[in-house]
Amino acid sequence: MADARLNMADPLDSRLQQRISDQLRLAQLARSLSPHGAVPYFAHMRLETDGRVRDVLLGPDTRTGGGVAIIDWQNAPLSEVFFCCADGDDYEVDTGERTLTGTLIERNLVSFAQGQVCEIETALGRLRLKDGAWQLETGPTPGLALRPEAARLRSSSPADVVLDTAQRRIVDLPAGRAVLLLGEAGFGKTTVALHRLARLRERSGLRAAVIVPTEGLRRLSAALLERLGVSGVQVWLFDRWAGIEARRAFRRLPERESQDASAGVIRIKRDPALRGVLAELMGRHAGGQRDRRRTRRRDLLHLFGDRVLMQKLAAASQQGIGAGMVAEVLEHTHVQFSSTAEQEFAHVDADRLETLDGRALDDGTPMEDAGTLDTEDYAVLFELDRLRAERAGERPVEPRSYDCLVLDEAQEFAPLELALMGRALAPGGSLIVAGDADQQVDPTACFSGWAGSMAELGCAAYETAVLEVSYRCPPEVTELARRILDGRGGTWPPEPSTVSMEFAHECHQADWLTRELRELQTSDPRGSAALICRTPEAARRLFQHLRRGLGLRLALDGDYQFVGGINVTCVQQAKGLEFDYVVIPDASAAVYPATPAGRRALYVAVTRASHQLVLSSVGPWTEILRH
């Protein structure tokens, strides 16, 4: 084998020579257990248990034979030792069946090139094979740069900023004026919007509400209002607000919401072309009994369960809705209007219908959405009712009204959702809309521009205020974000506020992240950190990789730790938020293609950082970041 020779450019001490020899031997043994051409393993541990020393390799799955043992680096209980211990540490691992104890003698990360060992990362330094000779590199590995000591000793808040003259002018505008707040990420749109709300409440104690698209932003906004001393203002997640208003307005709506609506179903129910289909549905019943005013849940069956109407919607849509999505919404609607198992077997003794885990009989089956509504249905019901009332010459059912309404990240609301919220503003009320078209990452919102959004809100006259000063990101990160959007690529890496790390495998990335974040938890316990993946699925996967060696939170439902915590989340859920340290672990060509949507998503991710940004990739970098 080509790597069976041990050639040194400069003499290495005996410990390093032995490590190289050991890895060359183990690699040769491991190849016999691995598929042809596959990397045999990613890391190595030497363990001592009851006086016996053995070598354990971390690989893609568990295999034994030929004098070597390879364990699944992601799932094997013993792999926890590698991520949680350093050379010389004692370990104790509970496997559920028994407890494994011993000492980690040494640990090594191993990289391969063309099937041969090319790099060994040890506690003593990084050994690399260059021009046929092994060399030791002892320089520091890039890592997280801690905040200044003074910042680490206190907690900060976006509400604590001193407003500049332009921001103060917006805050002090008279009541009844509608304002559209625009600006790049980190330029203070949320802060200014909430300061204006606080000022209006201070003057007149008006009835006010804040409505946002994500739970994380809802929690942050509520915390900022509390910091500003504002009480009695509801901060709503749109889905929750719309559900409460719909159940108040329309009789006998189910309490349960769908957990299984596909992306295609959601796309159809938020599509602007739905308006034309609604008008046709109302036209079918013009003058009949159904047209005499009662909007009911069953109208949704006549709408989303009608193949002809859904095909017309698909033909009129600009989203590329195909036959597959039409079939999905028809089947989903059929399930929703089916009886639940409990209803179907209501004649059976109740105790015989109880499940061992206490869940509903339909849970985990194709019928689990029986008897449910989709959150997207709420705005549709209100629009149906408005059209029916218009035909009957009557007043439609209205949501409860507010004297002041704040809509943040408004580019993520669909047209019917904007129209519903616009109807919640009392005559002469103050409307505050904040957003950034470059942060529009949900394609189902069908955002077409701010003029269209304000028209949907029923707002003909409004003042546009463009914020021009960044209060969040370091200058280097702000410049990188602008380059991402305009296609210029990055000044790579944009030091000093950004670190870039490329890894050959997820195992190596998980090891680096574990070590850096563990140090962060020790040295800056008040600091907030977020690992922002492109999708929820990627966030769950990364969380599984890191949970063995760290205390962290999977925050896909808005349950963030804004002070003193590490959050694993995705781009959509991180919108509107900020963290001291931000890690983007999947900045690869496969995850962030150089498309408008890919650029906007990466822009959102990088601009969450208020102190340091870490860009990381397993495999080739995204073209967005290349010169």
Short description:
With 627 residues, the chain is α/β, with parallel strands linked by helices.
State the end-to-end distance.
39 Å
Share of β-strand residues: 15-25%
Task: Label the CATH architecture of the largest domain.
Answer: 3-Layer(aba) Sandwich
Number of strands: 21
Could you describe the largest sheet, including whether it forms a barrel? 9 strands, mixed
CATH superfamily of the largest domain: P-loop containing nucleotide triphosphate hydrolases
Label the overall shape: globular
What does the average pLDDT come to? Answer: 89
Number of domains: 4
Helix-strand category: alpha/beta
Helix content: 25-40%
Give the uncertain stretches in residue-range form.
Answer: 1-6
Total number of helical segments?
A: 21
Instruction: Please compute the radius of gyration using only Cα atoms.
Output: 29 Å
In the CATH hierarchy, the third-tier topology of the largest domain is known as: Rossmann fold
Provide the CATH top-level class of the largest domain: Alpha Beta
Describe it:
By secondary structure, the protein is α/β, with parallel strands linked by helices. The protein has four domains: 2-137, no CATH class; 161-244 and 401-466, Rossmann fold (3-Layer(aba) Sandwich); 254-339 and 365-392, no CATH class; 475-625, Rossmann fold (3-Layer(aba) Sandwich). The strands form three sheets. Strands 1, 2, 3, 4, 5, 6, 7, 8 and 9 form a nine-stranded mixed beta sheet that branches. The longest helix has 18 residues, at 14-31. The radius of gyration is 29 Å and the shape is globular. The two termini are 39 Å apart. Mean pLDDT is 89; it is low at 1-6.
